[in-house]
Inverse folding.
């Protein structure tokens, strides 16, 4: 097999990690600290590789990429999202795809809580006014005693539900795969949207969930509610969200993800005072970074040892 290729560590996170140092000490690695820039560029970098460790979701593993890389056996993703990978194409080509579930759950849940409180307490606006010499008072919301709706009870959703409960919020949830054993009150989606003072999205992006919070569902949300999204931007109809925020039908939003990233400074969301924005950085803590990168490397070693871990697709070719 060819050496391992890391095609897209930009900006670099893998290069400075302990996981990468140990990997390089054990095997040859073809490492790139710039983005491939195109489908052709990605194919050129990984064309003869047997194993790829993918860092950035901007690298899109399409059917054509898999067809152009016949030696590829393992695609080890850093992170949980798989929306940049054609999983069916991977399965057809017999490429095993793995990810790193759960390692960022605490970091992202903490960030979701920070966004919620920053929006509710208007911290960015109050901070700016205070720096300008003003002394603003009031016009903030207390979350204790309010209702928090969690959409999606994966590792992150469950962790954020615990944090919401810890500050005295009543937590209810909706999930695509309901399981009372998870320990949270499950309600219909329409009930959650209509009754919650804050709603937080924790779904994976897929063809089934793209545009999940569309105009109709956003219209169901309780007037004055806050929306938190640390999952994927394309889960939400951004134009409809901007309208709901601009008219103050929704009190505010805390957003770490956007339909197109990086977010343009001219985007309508960037001009709204009742929105707190962060640059898809919820899971970027030293602890979460190192754990996730190490798990991406461990998935490689386990695959080579014949016991693949954290498999999300592939493993056997299904070509006719």
């Amino acid at each position: 097999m060819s050496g391992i290729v890391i095609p897209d560590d930009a900006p670099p996170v893998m290069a400075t990690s302990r996981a990468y140092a140990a990997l390089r000490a054990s095997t040859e690695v073809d490492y790139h600290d710039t983005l491939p820039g195109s489908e052709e560029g990605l194919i050129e970098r990984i064309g003869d590789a047997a194993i790829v460790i993918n860092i950035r979701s901007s690298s899109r593993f399409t059917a054509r990429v898999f067809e152009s890389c016949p030696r590829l056996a393992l695609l080890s993703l850093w992170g949980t999202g798989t929306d940049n990978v054609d999983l069916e194409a991977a399965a057809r080509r017999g490429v095993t795809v793995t990810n790193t579930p759960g390692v960022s759950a605490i970091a992202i849940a903490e960030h979701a809580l920070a966004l919620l409180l920053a929006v509710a307490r208007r911290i960015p606006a109050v901070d700016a006014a205070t720096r300008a010499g003003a002394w603003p008072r009031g016009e903030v919301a207390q979350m204790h005693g309010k209702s928090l709706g969690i959409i999606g009870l994966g590792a992150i959703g469950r962790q954020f539900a615990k944090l919401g409960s810890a500050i005295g919020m009543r937590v209810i949830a909706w999930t695509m795969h309901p399981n009372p054993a998870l320990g949270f009150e499950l309600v219909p989606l329409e009930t959650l949207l209509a009754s919650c003072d804050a709603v937080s999205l924790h779904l994976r992006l897929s063809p089934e969930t793209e545009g999940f919070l569309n105009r109709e569902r956003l219209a169901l949300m309780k007037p004055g509610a806050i929306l938190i999204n640390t999952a994927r931007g394309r889960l939400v109809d951004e134009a409809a969200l901007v309208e709901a925020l601009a008219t103050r039908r929704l009190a505010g939003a805390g957003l770490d993800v956007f339909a197109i990233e990086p977010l343009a400074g001219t985007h309508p969301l960037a001009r709204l005072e009742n929105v707190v924005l962060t640059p898809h950085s919820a899971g970027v803590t030293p602890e979460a970074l190192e754990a996730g990168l190490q798990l991406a490397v461990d998935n490689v070693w386990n695959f080579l040892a014949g016991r693949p871990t954290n498999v999300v697709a592939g493993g056997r070719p299904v070509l006719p």
